[in-house]
Amino acid sequence: MKKLSLVLVITLLLINCSSANKSAKRVANPETYAKTITADELKNMLFTYASDEFEGRKTGEPGQKKAINFIKEHYIDNGIPSPIAEGDYFQEIPVEYFNNRADNASENVVAYIKGSEKPDEVLVISAHLDHIGISKSGEINNGADDDGSGTVGILEIAEAFKAAEKDGFPPKRSIVFLHVTGEEIGLFGSRYYADEDPIFPLKNTIANLNIDMIGRVDEKHEGKPNYLYLIGSDRLSTELHTVSDSINNATLKLELDYTFNAENDPNRFYYRSDHYNFAKHNIPVIFYFNGTHADYHRPSDTPDKINYEFLEARTQLIFYTAWELANREARVKLD
């Protein structure tokens, strides 16, 4: 009897330990997924996206159509769905909307990962997919930094979140990956999404992280390139600014430069990229930017001039920030 009792006790202990392990909540480590964002993958994509084949990606033109299909195929290949309809990643914008600044209709590209706990709350990560096309001299403006760098950055961020979802760690809130058209001719794609056809209600949009040029180094930071300009992070939500700073301090420790965030910034960059169409609706924003350089809006903005190690680090920082915003208990507060 004593031997039998001992066997029963051991068996019960093993059962209890097994049940406890199964019930214990697994916790994701975002670093695991941030490390899937690599310089090699970013480079591989950008050498295609900013190649001559895409003809400078001018809004409505054949090269821009190649660009949207490149983005769409990436999401399909990675099993990341569209919120519009199954297989339909394009938010159509009629030619009339562009006020004679484009000759043809164009498209935003939209994909998303559904939140597990608060699916109706949405974080939008954006970048513009277009550029300025072919110069009158016949030279192609490849737009590797502007904004090929932001485009491939979003694709890598989306892959990282998808890898986490596959491992059983979907974001608590939904994340929308928004590639907008018509930025170079007047922020038209983001304005269409925000003003005319927000696929998700703006009141449920917790923040917009906008990426526009993150692959180069400007003149100010030559010799000390471990930096990134942030614009708008404290304009609508001090809490967003605090979260952003704390995430950077805990992860990449980049020098966050707020020069262009000044209210009296003569460049007025706060009003010149797609985040502004969210900010004007009282949605907290961060605009990530490396500053301008000699190749800005020139045929010489080519993928061989991108610093892919910097692009990797900056993209990883945006991923970490998005991870925190999507998974924290409460959405960031408006001031």
Automatic annotation (TrEMBL):
<dbReference type="Pfam" id="PF04389">
    <property type="entry name" value="Peptidase_M28"/>
</dbReference>
<dbReference type="GO" id="GO:0006508">
    <property type="term" value="P:proteolysis"/>
</dbReference>
<dbReference type="GO" id="GO:0008235">
    <property type="term" value="F:metalloexopeptidase activity"/>
</dbReference>
<feature type="signal peptide">
    <location>
        <begin position="1"/>
        <end position="20"/>
    </location>
</feature>
<dbReference type="InterPro" id="IPR018247">
    <property type="entry name" value="EF_Hand_1_Ca_BS"/>
</dbReference>
<feature type="domain" description="Peptidase M28">
    <location>
        <begin position="108"/>
        <end position="320"/>
    </location>
</feature>
<keyword id="KW-0732">Signal</keyword>
<dbReference type="InterPro" id="IPR007484">
    <property type="entry name" value="Peptidase_M28"/>
</dbReference>
<keyword id="KW-0378">Hydrolase</keyword>
<protein>
    <submittedName>
        <fullName>M20/M25/M40 family metallo-hydrolase</fullName>
    </submittedName>
</protein>
<dbReference type="InterPro" id="IPR045175">
    <property type="entry name" value="M28_fam"/>
</dbReference>
